[in-house]
Design goal:
Blueprint: E1 3-9, H1 14-28, E2 34-38, E3 41-48, E4 51-58, E5 63-68, H2 72-79, E6 84-87, H3 99-110, E7 117-118, E8 127-130, E9 139-146, E10 151-158, E11 161-168, E12 172-174
Parallel strand pairs: 3-7
Antiparallel strand pairs: 1-5, 1-6, 2-5, 3-4, 8-9, 8-12, 9-10, 10-11
Protein backbone atom coordinates (compact mmCIF):
# COMPACT_ATOMS: atom_id res chain seq x y z
CA UNK A 1 0.00 0.00 0.00
CA UNK A 2 1.34 3.43 -0.99
CA UNK A 3 1.66 6.11 1.67
CA UNK A 4 3.15 9.60 1.80
CA UNK A 5 6.57 10.03 3.41
CA UNK A 6 8.66 13.13 4.06
CA UNK A 7 12.33 13.25 3.12
CA UNK A 8 14.86 15.68 4.60
CA UNK A 9 16.94 17.21 1.82
CA UNK A 10 19.45 19.98 1.38
CA UNK A 11 17.71 23.36 1.37
CA UNK A 12 17.49 25.02 -2.07
CA UNK A 13 18.17 21.67 -3.79
CA UNK A 14 14.65 20.25 -3.46
CA UNK A 15 13.91 20.31 -7.22
CA UNK A 16 17.27 18.75 -8.12
CA UNK A 17 16.73 15.99 -5.53
CA UNK A 18 13.17 15.42 -6.85
CA UNK A 19 14.46 15.10 -10.43
CA UNK A 20 17.36 12.83 -9.42
CA UNK A 21 15.06 10.58 -7.40
CA UNK A 22 12.57 10.37 -10.29
CA UNK A 23 15.38 9.41 -12.68
CA UNK A 24 16.64 6.70 -10.29
CA UNK A 25 13.10 5.34 -9.81
CA UNK A 26 12.69 5.05 -13.60
CA UNK A 27 16.13 3.47 -14.04
CA UNK A 28 15.35 0.87 -11.36
CA UNK A 29 11.93 0.15 -12.86
CA UNK A 30 10.11 1.02 -9.63
CA UNK A 31 7.47 3.33 -11.12
CA UNK A 32 4.78 1.00 -9.74
CA UNK A 33 6.04 1.44 -6.18
CA UNK A 34 6.78 5.19 -6.26
CA UNK A 35 3.71 7.13 -7.40
CA UNK A 36 4.49 10.81 -6.73
CA UNK A 37 7.41 13.02 -5.75
CA UNK A 38 6.37 16.55 -4.72
CA UNK A 39 8.00 19.84 -3.78
CA UNK A 40 4.99 22.05 -2.89
CA UNK A 41 5.46 25.68 -3.96
CA UNK A 42 3.36 28.82 -4.04
CA UNK A 43 3.52 31.88 -6.28
CA UNK A 44 4.24 35.08 -4.36
CA UNK A 45 3.89 38.63 -5.70
CA UNK A 46 6.51 41.06 -4.38
CA UNK A 47 7.68 44.58 -5.13
CA UNK A 48 11.45 44.74 -5.59
CA UNK A 49 13.15 47.98 -6.62
CA UNK A 50 9.78 49.44 -7.54
CA UNK A 51 8.91 46.59 -9.91
CA UNK A 52 6.31 43.89 -9.30
CA UNK A 53 7.76 40.39 -9.54
CA UNK A 54 6.10 37.01 -9.20
CA UNK A 55 8.30 34.25 -7.83
CA UNK A 56 7.83 30.72 -6.56
CA UNK A 57 8.60 29.98 -2.93
CA UNK A 58 8.79 26.53 -1.40
CA UNK A 59 6.12 25.96 1.21
CA UNK A 60 8.31 23.44 3.07
CA UNK A 61 11.97 24.32 2.39
CA UNK A 62 14.30 21.40 3.03
CA UNK A 63 11.67 18.70 2.46
CA UNK A 64 10.45 16.53 -0.41
CA UNK A 65 7.23 14.49 -0.22
CA UNK A 66 7.08 11.00 -1.75
CA UNK A 67 4.07 8.74 -2.21
CA UNK A 68 5.48 5.25 -2.26
CA UNK A 69 5.21 1.66 -1.15
CA UNK A 70 7.89 1.33 1.51
CA UNK A 71 9.96 -1.84 1.32
CA UNK A 72 13.68 -2.64 1.48
CA UNK A 73 14.19 -1.94 -2.24
CA UNK A 74 12.50 1.49 -2.29
CA UNK A 75 14.01 2.49 1.06
CA UNK A 76 17.53 1.68 -0.19
CA UNK A 77 16.88 3.59 -3.43
CA UNK A 78 15.81 6.70 -1.48
CA UNK A 79 18.60 6.52 1.10
CA UNK A 80 21.28 6.16 -1.61
CA UNK A 81 20.03 9.13 -3.62
CA UNK A 82 22.42 12.11 -3.38
CA UNK A 83 21.06 15.13 -1.51
CA UNK A 84 18.62 13.16 0.67
CA UNK A 85 19.37 13.17 4.38
CA UNK A 86 16.82 10.69 5.69
CA UNK A 87 13.15 9.95 6.15
CA UNK A 88 11.29 12.12 8.63
CA UNK A 89 10.27 10.03 11.61
CA UNK A 90 11.19 8.86 15.06
CA UNK A 91 14.81 7.67 15.44
CA UNK A 92 15.49 7.56 11.70
CA UNK A 93 12.47 5.41 10.92
CA UNK A 94 10.09 6.34 8.12
CA UNK A 95 6.82 7.60 9.57
CA UNK A 96 4.04 8.00 7.00
CA UNK A 97 1.86 11.12 6.94
CA UNK A 98 -1.71 10.78 8.15
CA UNK A 99 -4.45 10.94 5.51
CA UNK A 100 -5.33 14.49 6.55
CA UNK A 101 -1.70 15.67 6.33
CA UNK A 102 -1.27 13.98 2.94
CA UNK A 103 -4.44 15.64 1.60
CA UNK A 104 -3.18 19.03 2.81
CA UNK A 105 0.20 18.60 1.07
CA UNK A 106 -1.32 17.42 -2.22
CA UNK A 107 -3.87 20.26 -2.14
CA UNK A 108 -1.05 22.78 -1.65
CA UNK A 109 0.88 21.26 -4.57
CA UNK A 110 -2.19 21.44 -6.84
CA UNK A 111 -3.01 25.00 -5.76
CA UNK A 112 0.05 26.45 -7.51
CA UNK A 113 -2.02 27.27 -10.62
CA UNK A 114 -4.00 29.86 -8.66
CA UNK A 115 -3.24 33.57 -8.65
CA UNK A 116 -0.13 34.50 -6.68
CA UNK A 117 -0.45 35.44 -3.05
CA UNK A 118 0.82 38.87 -2.09
CA UNK A 119 3.81 39.05 0.21
CA UNK A 120 3.40 41.97 2.58
CA UNK A 121 6.43 42.57 4.80
CA UNK A 122 4.69 44.81 7.30
CA UNK A 123 3.21 44.16 10.73
CA UNK A 124 0.70 46.20 12.75
CA UNK A 125 2.60 48.88 14.66
CA UNK A 126 5.37 49.30 12.05
CA UNK A 127 6.38 52.87 11.30
CA UNK A 128 6.27 53.56 7.57
CA UNK A 129 6.88 56.34 5.06
CA UNK A 130 4.53 56.77 2.09
CA UNK A 131 6.44 56.76 -1.21
CA UNK A 132 3.59 57.08 -3.75
CA UNK A 133 0.23 58.80 -4.12
CA UNK A 134 -1.51 61.79 -2.57
CA UNK A 135 0.17 61.30 0.84
CA UNK A 136 3.72 60.97 -0.55
CA UNK A 137 6.44 61.67 2.08
CA UNK A 138 3.95 61.41 4.99
CA UNK A 139 4.88 59.11 7.83
CA UNK A 140 2.48 56.88 9.69
CA UNK A 141 1.90 53.66 11.58
CA UNK A 142 0.46 50.43 10.20
CA UNK A 143 -2.84 49.77 11.95
CA UNK A 144 -4.14 46.78 9.98
CA UNK A 145 -3.16 44.55 7.05
CA UNK A 146 -5.65 43.42 4.39
CA UNK A 147 -3.63 40.76 2.49
CA UNK A 148 -6.52 39.57 0.29
CA UNK A 149 -6.75 43.11 -1.17
CA UNK A 150 -3.04 43.96 -0.94
CA UNK A 151 -3.83 46.95 1.26
CA UNK A 152 -2.52 48.42 4.49
CA UNK A 153 -4.57 50.57 6.82
CA UNK A 154 -2.17 53.29 7.99
CA UNK A 155 -2.76 56.02 10.56
CA UNK A 156 -1.33 59.31 9.26
CA UNK A 157 -1.36 62.63 11.11
CA UNK A 158 -3.08 65.23 8.92
CA UNK A 159 -3.56 68.75 10.31
CA UNK A 160 -2.64 67.47 13.77
CA UNK A 161 -5.27 64.71 13.78
CA UNK A 162 -4.66 60.95 13.35
CA UNK A 163 -6.45 59.83 10.20
CA UNK A 164 -6.71 56.21 8.95
CA UNK A 165 -5.82 55.82 5.26
CA UNK A 166 -5.88 52.66 3.12
CA UNK A 167 -2.85 52.31 0.87
CA UNK A 168 -1.54 49.63 -1.43
CA UNK A 169 1.40 47.73 0.09
CA UNK A 170 3.80 48.92 -2.62
CA UNK A 171 3.08 52.61 -1.87
CA UNK A 172 4.92 52.48 1.47
CA UNK A 173 8.30 51.56 2.88
CA UNK A 174 9.55 50.99 6.40
CA UNK A 175 10.70 54.21 8.07
Amino acid sequence: MKQWYVLRVQTNREEKVRDTLATRVNAAGLEGKVANILVPTEKVSEIKSGKKTVSEHKIYPGYVFVEMELDDETKALVKNCPGIGDFLGASGGATPLSEREAEKVTAEAERKEEAPTIKIDFDPGDNIRITEGAFKNFEGTVEDILPEKGLLRVVVTIFGRPTPVELEYWQVEKA
